[in-house]
């Protein structure tokens, strides 16, 4: 059955009413808790379920994010009959922070994210659903890709990745030195430090933002982070950058190890992650599978799932159609 997101999902014109009333009521009914991840770090998770549902989505978010900012998306997915599961990565959101400075985005090893995801997947026993999917964004796309590549017996039937972090967008002169430089900076310093040019949490004005053209959704999300200091996140450490580049490279290098259908939603105006790496990933995967799909979204910035209706609806239509195959 074809789903039209313009008719069935939240639209900008009624966003403020929806987020204050139906979505707020929906969000209050969530189950939430903490699970012990690798190294005994507490991972915050949420689930939104109905006994009438027989299909599920695990939503894996990006760097700096929290499940709290995806209330609209969860609401729209739930209305289409999906149970929703999601969690905050170690070091961000409501999960345990790893450093004394809670604003530093840090990870010791990119594989720690993958181990945490494996724990969450096992906790929720997705095998009880007839259809099981991953929807992942940005860093979450890289984590989910590496999870699929390293866990061949995973329970999922398909994966959709939005603007996956298969490489970080950066100026050409910096690209050649970023990885070795961040590695050296990490080795030289006894304690983690912000990467060059990075700092603690600060609200980004809408006019300067690289994430979305939709001011309504952007300002709601920015207000959420301003009002919830516990989910605020600043820039990454040099160690995070080094580990993220390594993890992203492994995604592309091991593309053929993805063993389920994959939809890659690519915002054409992305300035956060590198679209050329996504193209290479799809080219590598397509040598081994015929069900690897690249969908460019014209005039979309990095966060297409919180973009203007035109771009967001196009992405949601593709996701619903892909998961309905």
Automatic annotation (TrEMBL):
It comes from the Bacteria. One of its GO terms (molecular function) is phosphatidylcholine lysophospholipase activity. Its EC number is 3.1.1.5. Residues 53-309 form the Serine aminopeptidase S33 domain. It holds the Pfam family Hydrolase_4. The keyword Hydrolase applies. The keyword Hydrolase applies. Keywords: Hydrolase. This is Lysophospholipase L2.
């Amino acid at each position: 059955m074809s789903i039209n997101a313009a008719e069935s999902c939240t639209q900008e014109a009624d966003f403020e009413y929806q987020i204050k009333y139906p979505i707020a009521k929906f969000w209050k009914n969530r189950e939430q808790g903490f699970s012990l991840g690798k190294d005994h770090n507490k991972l915050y998770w949420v689930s939104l379920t109905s006994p009438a549902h027989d299909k599920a989505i695990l939503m894996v978010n990006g760097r700096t994010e929290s499940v709290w900012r995806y209330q609209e998306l969860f609401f729209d997915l739930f209305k289409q009959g999906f149970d929703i599961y999601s969690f905050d990565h170690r070091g961000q959101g409501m999960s345990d922070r790893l450093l004394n400075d809670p604003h530093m985005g840090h990870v010791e090893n990119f594989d720690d994210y993958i181990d945490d995801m494996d724990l969450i997947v096992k906790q929720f026993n997705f095998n009880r659903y007839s259809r099981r999917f991953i929807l992942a964004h940005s860093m979450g796309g890289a984590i989910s890709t590496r999870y699929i590549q390293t866990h061949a017996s995973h329970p999922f039937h398909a994966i959709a990745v939005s603007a996956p972090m298969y490489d970080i967008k950066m100026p050409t002169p910096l690209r050649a030195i970023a990885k070795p430089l961040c590695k050296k900076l990490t080795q030289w310093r006894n304690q983690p430090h912000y990467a060059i040019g990075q700092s603690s949490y600060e609200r980004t004005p809408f006019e300067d933002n690289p994430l979305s053209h939709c001011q309504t959704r952007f300002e709601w999300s920015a207000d959420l982070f301003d009002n919830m200091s516990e989910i605020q996140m600043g820039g990454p450490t040099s160690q995070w950058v080094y580990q993220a580049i390594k993890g992203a490279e492994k995604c592309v290098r091991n593309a053929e190890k993805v063993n389920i259908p994959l939809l890659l939603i690519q915002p054409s105006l992305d300035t956060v992650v590198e679209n050329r790496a996504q193209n290479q990933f799809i080219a590598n995967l397509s040598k081994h599978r015929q069900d690897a799909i690249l969908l460019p979204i014209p005039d979309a910035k990095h966060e297409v799932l919180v973009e203007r209706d035109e771009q967001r609806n196009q992405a949601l239509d593709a996701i619903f159609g892909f998961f309905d195959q």
